Write the structure tokens for this entry.
Amino acid sequence: MVKVGDQICDGPLGDVGTKMLHDDERVRIWEVDLAPGEATAPHRHEHDYILIFLEGDRIAAVPHVDATGPSASYIEAEVVPGSHVLLKKGGIEAALNVGTKRYYEYLIELKDRP
């Protein structure tokens, strides 16, 4: 469950995306598809990963109650379709579409990255 007012999420950890598209020994590719106001399950990033933004206008990372360090902060960002970002493993959060448009991305987990 995501509690936006408290800017935290709790509950059991789930998948980092809404649908797995590919999985092999090197990478795992997820689709993340969220309507306005919809959130992913709380999840832990076990691998470095790349986000490729395809649609949307604003997204938030809502920290899990067990998050520590930099990943324990609520963050909102503008979505620029066609852009991407490389992020480090370790975060425990839920992604929340705080925009007015559908949010759609590919999330690529880099399983063989040290």
Summary: The CA atoms of residues 33 and 104 lie 5 Å apart. The mean pLDDT is 89. The radius of gyration is 13 Å.
